[in-house]
Amino acid sequence: MSGCLFCKIIAGEIPAEKLYEDEKAIVIRDINPQAPWHFLVIPKKHYSALHEIPEHDAPTLLCGLMNALHQTLNATGLNSNGYRLVVNSGASAGQTVFHLHIHILGGRDMQWPPG
Length: 115
Ligand code: AMP
Ligand code: ZN
Known about the structure:
Layout: H1 5-10, E1 18-21, E2 25-29, E3 37-43, H2 58-76, E4 83-86, E5 102-106
Antiparallel strand pairs: 1-2, 2-3, 3-5, 4-5
The chain binds adenosine monophosphate (AMP) and zinc ion (ZN).
């Protein structure tokens, strides 16, 4: 989608530190980390949020997204410490880039409930 930051990163038009890539998703390091480990799992196909994925696309897209997440957890060693997954959905929930992504945060103690 033209004008979308993450679509530009996926297309290689904007540089990012890529930890993982396959045909369905990429994982990059967040440019403004909120924890010692802060990665973003991003599907290559543009949808603004989870609830925007049409039924016919959901199984393939979500399976690809979860697979990239799973690979990253095991490859980074995050699996042996605590980590938190966050999907901000909508501006009031803190979403600033309207291309679906899962935050992986780890490497520090966290509070509950989140702010
Ligand atoms: P959200 O606020 O949930 O939409 O998350 C968007 C995330 O993208 C934020 O944590 C930003 O720090 C991150 N971000 C913005 N621009 C870039 C970039 N060029 N490379 C990597 N991460 C970015
Ligand atoms: Zn996009």
